[in-house]
Amino acid sequence: MVRITINEDRCTGCGLCVEACHEAVIGISNGKARLVQEAYCDGLGNCIPVCPTGAIIREVRDRQIPPKPLSITQWPVQIKLVPLQAPFFEQANVVISADCCAYVYGNFHQEFMKNQIILIGCPKLDAVDYSEKLGEIIQHNHIKSLRVIRMEVPCCGGIEHAVRKALKNSGKILPLAVTTLSIDGKIVH
Q: What is the Cα–Cα distance from 77 to 158, expressed in whole angstroms?
């Protein structure tokens, strides 16, 4: 598990890290930066480059509970949070899934995530058009293939539409597969 650590001896309490932290994990207490919501730290370290004294570092910690083997190979997975360029996109097969799919389809990890990069989102709940960001990801990385996994419900059509639009706008030609799941967890097509 990757988390950040703050060396209080080096911290000047400037607060730049507080502003840079998107998870509101860091706060100022007694003139020093401190982790106030450590459980929510994503370990990405947006706070690290803004610290003028180098008081913040990433630290790998052992988990208390042995982790179950997962098929996930990158973090973050939310379309809204994933960077536009990242090493994990290099020659990757990218799965773009409606977030409900992993809950409805019991073998989601085994069948759709092994050796794949996974991006998830919900066009209805996120109320955003993913096509622009996905188009930039496709355009600026060397991706091998795309696969959309969606539910049969109409709102999931938004994620498929966004991927098709992104691919078209990127100017690249990539293999694209679409898998549709029924609400009772079966593959429709």
A: 18
